[in-house]
Amino acid sequence: MSLTGLGSRGPCEEGPIAVFGPNGSGKTALLRQMASRRALLVPENPDDFFVRFTVADEVAYMLEEEGVAPQEIRARVFGALRTVGLSDRAWDPVHSLSGGQKRRLALAVALAAGTPRVLLDMPYMDLDPEIRGQLRGILGAMAEGCRAVVYTTPKRRYAARNAVTLRASPDQVELPEPGTVEGEVKARDIAVTYGSRNVLVGVDLEVGSGEVVCVVGPNGSGKTTLGKALAGLVKPRRGTVVSRGPRAYVPQTPDLAFIGATIREEAKVLGVPRLAQAFERYADTPIYALNRGLRRLAAVTAIMASGLGVVVLDEPTNDLDDHYTSLMAGLIREAAGRGTAMVVITHDPDLAAGACSRFVRAEGGTLTDVAASDALRYLSL
Amino acid sequence: MRGFLFGVTPVGKLAALMGIAVTTTAARDVHLSALVLLYVVAVDAVGGVPRRAVRDAAPLTPLLVGLPTTNALVAWLRGGEPLALFAYTLVMLTLLVSLSAMVAYTTNPDDVVYSLYRVSPTFALMVGLAYNTLFYLLYRARDVVDAYRARGLVRRRTDYLRRLHLVAVSLLRLGALRAEALAFVLEVRGFNSPHRTYWREVRAGKADALFVGATMAYLAAAALAVGA
Q1: Quick check: A348 and A100 in contact, CB under 8 A?
Q2: Which of B197, B202, B203 to probe by mutation at the A interface, max A CB count within 10 Å?
Q3: What is the DSSP letter of A36?
Q4: Which of A88, A191, B93, B139: CA 20 to 30 A from B66?
């Protein structure tokens, strides 16, 4: 498989092409080189992609710039939003969408756009299993009419039959042992409202010392809000959250968790010198110059090494390759083994199989316990 | 349910608001201002401005009380009319909050951008991007503060103030990255194409005429009543 001459004739027969490779192998750099006005690049962080205020206007923007007739724009905007399951949010502000819904919106923009080539950087990231299951069909729809569709993925399970494989030597990291602090957290009947939208309605959850509770469920079901409420970052309108031991939350986007400009600075601010030792080779490199896998691992390790009683990880592996995912699963198990109460919000079946001891499913602002086999089946859709 | 103000274009709303601002400021009359405030509150209620406007404005209470009180105190020290000044300042501030709520809770910012396209497409898009960036930075600021709190670095409000410079540095860094990403994205998304079309137009309609007309008529009647 080759990317040379892409869009001239090959993809008509080939369908979407995957660029598969581990973190740090240059997938994003390759796509950025290929991007142009005729090759739309949807970046890995959808927040970097949006230029308008409402969901529908965001999808319409490119079509307007392309000079498409208003009637046709309307049809394409609502067609694309229907395909990604966002037609009921068409006139909502983009910033009110959840991480997964923003990813869906970015896909809708690519679906509606008329560029001859579409480049998607990690499109499987943040998506819930239902839409992830439909993504192959969506990518196929994008590739209609001889349109070239190229996407990157660090996970083998999402690589298409037509895959270009990039290689890279694994990063050299020796993870420090997590701190030993016993903790637990109990949420009783918590309700959270954003504006007029009820995000959580009467949720109960208990996570004991040494437990790893994984929260699964569709995009926009309140998983992140639950995680923030458990960590004390969101004040519930009703109900209580009681915890033992210091609490921490690692966000979906690891870049937002950093305070220092380098890992060494970060270790200094946090008072955790072991962090700089673990990432010695990369300790003085600017954080944003590190690959996403390293940034994610450093963000989580910084928290774990601090020795906390309750840790909430929001989608800790959705952009990690298989090697990093197994490292992360090991880190989570080890922290739980030392008494930390872990809450992991995830759509990743590999992490769930490797780290979770119990599952709950969020849907419509409520939580229900689910059996491990059911949860894993759902995540593998 | 959305009130009728959602059907009023930004141009219509701005015209009416400008009229209110000019009349009440020029008159410097507490009675006229109070009557106008009453009208604006009524329009807000009919227009379906949600209750959260009141909740969101609650943090402004110190300003709404503090500024009129200070004005009244200064007037009293100078031998003026403290009560009249207190009432006038309070009414004007409340009017300002009510008008802002009218726009903020009934206006889609993309509609403002669409209205501005008649002036200049580039200017309109710049306004839209500036607005988006403002929101982006507000949300990132919250994320950055959350990151500090999640690491136990902010336990009290004073900690937050002490570490404000670190938050500012993080935000500057994120703002620079956003600017770089935006430049790239605008390029690949075909910014400033010469063949641009507009998929929806923001036009003045009956609701605009009714709103602007009613506002002007009310202002005239109020001014006449106060004058008499």
Answers
A1: no
A2: B197
A3: B
A4: B139
Instruction: Give the A window 37-66 contacts with B, CB below 8 Å.
Output: 37, 39-41, 43, 45, 47-54, 57, 60-66
Distance (Å, whole) CA A292 – CA A255: 9
CATH 3.40.50.300 range(s) for chain A read 10-165, 184-379
Which residues on B lie below 8 Å from A232 (Cβ)?
149
Distance from CA of B43 to the nearest CA of A (A): 21
- Label residue A13 by pLDDT band (50, 70, 90): low
Token pair, residue A364, equals 């419509």
Taking contacts as CB-CB distances below 8 angstroms, the residues of chain A near B186 are: 51
* Cross-chain residue pair A246–B152, CB shorter than 8 Å: yes
Same domain for B158 and B70?
Answer: no
User: Can you tell me the distance from the alpha carbon of A165 to that of A167, in angstroms, rounded to the nearest whole number?
Assistant: 7
Q: Which CATH number fits domain A184-379: 3.90.79.10, 3.40.50.300, 2.60.120.230, 2.60.120.260?
A: 3.40.50.300
Instruction: Return the CATH superfamily for domain A10-165.
Output: P-loop containing nucleotide triphosphate hydrolases (3.40.50.300)
Q: What is the predicted ipTM?
A: 0.81
pLDDT in tens, A45-75: 888 899 888 999 999 999 999 999 999 999 9
Give contacts of B184 with chain A, Cβ < 8 Å: 32, 35, 41
Query: Is residue B171 in some structural domain?
Result: yes
Q: Do A73 and B109 touch (CB under 8 A)?
A: no
Do B73 and B50 have their domain in common?
Answer: yes
